[in-house]
Amino acid sequence: MAKADKATAVADIAEQFKGSTATLVTEYRGLTVANLKDLRRSLGDSATYTVAKNTLVKRAAAEAGIEGLDELFVGPTAIAFVKGEAVDAAKAIKKFAKENKALVIKGGYMDGRPLSVSEVERIADLESREVLLAKLAGAMKANLSKAAGLFTAQQAQAARLFAALQEKKAAEAPAAAEAPAAAEAPAE
C-alpha cells in the first residue's frame, strides 16, 4: 500500500472513530467472505463493519483520541463502528458470534473508555432503548396513579366523614324533637 493510500486510509478510519457512538473490536480469523457479508447485513444501518491493518487502525485511533485499544489490535482484526444504538450492534455481533464460532469479540470502546469482552456482552444483553423507555414510562405511570390515589383518598375520607356527621345529626334531630314533645304532653 502506497504511503498516500495509507494516509487516506488512516484519515478515513479516524473519521469513523470520531463519528461513532461506540466501537466493537472482533477477530474474524476463519470467517469467509460470505460470512462477513452476512455479518454486515445483520448489523444493518446501525454499524459499519471494517477490516483494516492493525497498524493503520492504531494510528487512526491515536489520531481520533481513542486510547486503551492497542492490545486489541493483534491478529486479524475487524471493527464495527456503531452509528446508532450500541445495544443493537452488540446484540447482532453476539448473535453472529454464537452462530459462527470463528468470530471472536475482543472488546470495544464507548463513552470515552475501553470495554472488555464481558462489558460488550452485557451491553448485548440489555433490552433495546425503546423497551427500556416503555418500562420506565410504565413505572412512572404506576407511581403517578398511586400518588393520585393517595391525594384523592384524603378528600374521599373527609367527604365520608362529613356525610356520616350529617346522617348522625339528621338522626339525632328527630329524636331530640320527639323528646321535648313527650315532656310537654300532660301525663294522664
Automatic annotation (TrEMBL):
BP term (GO), one: translation
TM stretches of this protein: none
Assigned GO CC terms: large ribosomal subunit
This protein's UniProt keywords: Ribonucleoprotein, Ribosomal protein, RNA-binding, rRNA-binding
Coiled coil: none
Entry GO MF terms: large ribosomal subunit rRNA binding; structural constituent of ribosome
A Pfam family reported for this protein in Swiss-Prot or TrEMBL: Ribosomal_L10
Subunit-structure text: Part of the ribosomal stalk of the 50S ribosomal subunit. The N-terminus interacts with L11 and the large rRNA to form the base of the stalk. The C-terminus forms an elongated spine to which L12 dimers bind in a sequential fashion forming a multimeric L10(L12)X complex.
Family assignment from sequence similarity: Belongs to the universal ribosomal protein uL10 family.
NCBIfam families in alphabetical order: PRK00099.1-1
Function: Forms part of the ribosomal stalk, playing a central role in the interaction of the ribosome with GTP-bound translation factors.
Entry-linked PANTHER family: 39S RIBOSOMAL PROTEIN L10, MITOCHONDRIAL
Protein known as: Large ribosomal subunit protein uL10
Species of provenance: Mycolicibacterium moriokaense
